[in-house]
Write a structure and sequence with these properties.
The chain is an alpha+beta fold and 202 residues long. Helices cover 25% and strands 17% of the residues. Residues 1-15 have low confidence and may be disordered.
Length: 202
């Protein structure tokens, strides 16, 4: 709970409840390069215990999805990862954008006017935690349109904080070597920079 207290005391200046901006689905569409272009665009973080459920939900919705590793650990640098701490659900477009669970084709709209999520009630913890970003201290994603307009949100972010804390608990490595998976996915003009496969995180 120390992280929650630090977040609430250091980052909350206005008292505005977080809510999606009208007609915005940006966080479900735009994917970014992380930690650099070399690693390609990342997908939505999926914990190992969430992977089977997400695959089942894709099957139930008749969706083809691609889940890649994201972070792995090992005891030695020359072995490759021996344990995967996190996976990632890749976007459905060739450049890595657009979550496959975002319902862009039905013509339906979510309550805020954006595209609805087909698995909203069972979405991954990373989606529940958004727009919080893991940093020290925890901050709000300034690419989020709501965060740009309002700057902060109040203690109504309890469920987001709880979700981020659950993710952080699972991401504590018990081996010394940390690996990141380069997805090989990105914009066409960046193809020569982007790598694919496991790379030691320095």
């Amino acid at each position: 709970m120390l992280i929650r207290k630090r977040f609430l005391s250091n980052n909350i200046k206005k008292y505005v409840k977080f809510q999606c901006i009208t007609d915005c689905s940006q966080c479900c569409i735009e994917r970014e390069y992380y930690p650099s272009k070399k690693f390609g665009k990342i997908g939505v973080l999926i914990l190992p215990e969430e992977k089977e459920r997400i695959e089942r939900l894709a099957n139930e919705n008749r969706l083809k999805i691609k889940i890649l590793p994201r972070i792995g650990i090992s005891k030695m640098k020359d072995s490759g990862p021996t344990k995967i701490l996190a996976y990632q659900l890749m976007g459905s477009e060739s450049n890595g954008n657009t979550c496959p669970f975002l319902d862009v084709d039905s013509g339906n709209k979510s309550p805020h006017g954006g595209f609805p999520c087909k698995i909203y009630k069972e979405r991954p913890l990373a989606c529940i935690a958004y727009p919080l970003i893991e940093s020290e201290p925890i901050t709000l994603d300034q690419k989020c349109k709501f965060c740009k307009e309002h700057g902060n949100a109040d203690q109504n972010l309890n469920s987001e904080v709880e979700s981020l804390l659950k993710i952080k608990e699972k991401m504590i490595p018990d081996m010394p070597v940390i690996w990141r998976f380069a997805t090989g996915v990105g914009e066409l003009e960046d193809k020569e920079i982007i790598e694919s496969g496991w790379i030691i995180d320095k």
